[in-house]
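Exercise 7. Predict the structure of Transmembrane protein 132b from Sinosuthora webbiana.
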Amino acid sequence: QRFSNLPTYLPASPHVSNADVFFFLKEANQDIMRNSSLQSRVDSFFLYKANQPPVLNATYGPFSVEQPIPLDLMLTSASFGFTNKFTFNWKLKSHIINSSIYSNKPKIQTLFYIAGRDWEDYDPEEMLPCVKMFAFLESREVVASCRLTGHLGLCVVELELSPSWFSSPPPLLSEETASLEGITVELFYKIYAADGECSPEDARWENNIHAGEENDHQALSAME
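Solution. The predicted structure, encoded as tokens:
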């Protein structure tokens, strides 16, 4: 009589429902004894695309069980917590159109858009969130807003700076240094409920758009 060298394991069959695309994963050099039990089993999976909350199913012979996957384990965005849509993998991204601005054209334009959304189920009557952007330099502040709209869920915020932003460098910079290197301006944005106005009462801080970082928020270089 021959015996197998493989450990005993629970032959349950896992499956994910309500997900358009998902993958079960196997770790490289996985410990062969990891699932050597008839009482429990561990499997890793990756959700790539889902339009509604997914459910994990497991079957073993005539028995089956299912459980919704907790939202805190998925890439749902807190920024869209006020919508009734399932916001799996949604991200609000930004791109500053011109990284340097000049006194003869003192406008900062930033494109905001929703990434990760399945636009096949787009409803033209659906109202998307409003975005408000702020620019700060010392005690000076300028604000503008736009509402995400259309099939691609995008809009452009345009901030126009007054001449005083260009008239003098900060105290720690000489005029010569400021003219060569420019002045760095910090940008922030807030996101508002889709059914609300762009008013401070409904707002919350979202992200600082940092200079010089390779991330979802493109850098604003020094003003020149």
